[in-house]
Design goal:
alpha/beta
């Protein structure tokens, strides 16, 4: 999955991802096609810039109202409620952080020593005529995160090429920054990213993989699918398996010379070792399910009197099977083609 690490300047005039390109980025993120990371410093800087712009607009409104009075215009323009708007900003970014593929990264206190060293020695993103503490924290947050988590396919989305980029190749980070990580490619704006990566992201197989990843396929997910869609088939196959057994197959002694097993209730208790593999637009789900079958043991009565039953019940057991299985999953969680590849008696109680 492509991971985008976003810089403040990308959103200076678009705080809420509303322009066409930024909105598309967010759509990709919500679909699970890419992951967006934002340093908390970026969020705070955007908030400060947003507050400054709101206050500036209020000053403009104040001037307009003053001129309106002079011009005898009766309409009065109400000032913007800055506090209310900042609450809206905070709520918006809180909701963003709840999206599974949008993550706000906090700055760490242990970055301080390294950042001071960079500032003193004018190591990028610091330079002689400019001191950009925030850029250093943003870069340190991003570079440390990708290295610790071994994230590949990383995009630094920034138009601050003077502080972050190589002078000769703006798609590369500066050599000073390359010492921290070489995992980043630089893209200057959302439009350029979409132009380059849209065909890859919107590839049907890639979109299907994103869909499957968002399902969080685990033991509980598969157990629910198996119970809802395949319980009848599994019950029939378990019954067939029990029908082919002899009482001596499950008893420690062989005092029953002839008889049979009668299967009744089947319970699918849990699943484990769940895996999936993508082929085109099909996910092959495989694993092991634990199935318990309530079973009666019948003994053949060779010396029965006339009118007596041929068989008599001598006991009841619960046969616990490990059932190895796979099935296909497609769009909209449609499932089909259950295949049971093996039965293994796990326990008899």
């Amino acid at each position: 999955m492509i991971s985008i690490f976003i810089d403040s300047n990308i959103l200076y005039k678009d705080y809420f991802f509303e322009n066409k390109s930024n909105k598309k980025l967010m759509e990709y993120c919500e679909e699970g096609l890419l992951k967006i990371y934002m340093s908390d410093v970026v969020r705070l800087e955007l908030r400060r810039q947003y507050e400054h712009e709101l206050k500036d607009k209020n000053q403009q409104l104040k001037r307009i109202n003053k001129d309106s009075e002079r011009l005898k215009v009766k309409d009065y323009l109400m000032p913007i409620d800055v506090v209310k708007q900042l609450e809206y900003f905070d709520k918006f970014y809180d909701q963003l952080s709840r999206i599974s593929d949008f993550e706000i990264l906090p700055a760490k206190n242990e970055f301080l020593t390294d950042i001071i060293n960079r500032a003193v020695n004018r190591i990028k993103p610091f330079k002689e005529e400019k001191s950009e503490l925030k850029d250093a924290i943003i870069w340190k947050t991003y570079s440390e995160h990708v290295e610790v988590n071994e994230i590949s396919d990383c995009i630094l989305l920034t138009n601050n090429s003077s502080d972050f980029c190589d002078k000769k190749d703006k798609s590369l980070v500066h050599p000073d920054l390359m010492k921290d990580t070489s995992r980043f490619k630089v893209v200057n704006q959302a439009f350029d990213f979409i132009k380059e990566y849209a065909s890859t992201l919107e590839n049907p197989q890639n979109k299907f993989l994103a869909f499957v990843n968002q399902l969080e396929i685990d033991d509980a997910f598969v157990l629910d699918i198996v119970r809802q869609n395949f319980e009848k088939t599994i019950t029939e196959q378990v019954h067939d398996k029990v029908d082919n057994l002899h009482p001596s197959d499950i008893l420690n002694d062989d005092y029953i010379m002839d008889g049979q097993l009668i299967p009744y209730n089947v319970e699918i208790s849990d699943c484990e070792d769940i895996q999936f593999e993508i082929t085109g637009e099909i996910a092959l789900i495989s694993g092991i399910m634990h199935v318990c079958c309530e079973t009666e043991i019948w003994e053949y009565n060779a010396v029965r009197d006339p009118g007596e039953d041929r068989y008599s019940t001598v006991g009841e057991v619960y046969i616990n099977y490990k059932v190895y299985f796979n099935f296909d999953l497609t769009w909209d969680e449609a499932v089909s083609d259950l295949e049971i590849t093996d039965f293994e008696v796990n326990d008899i109680t």
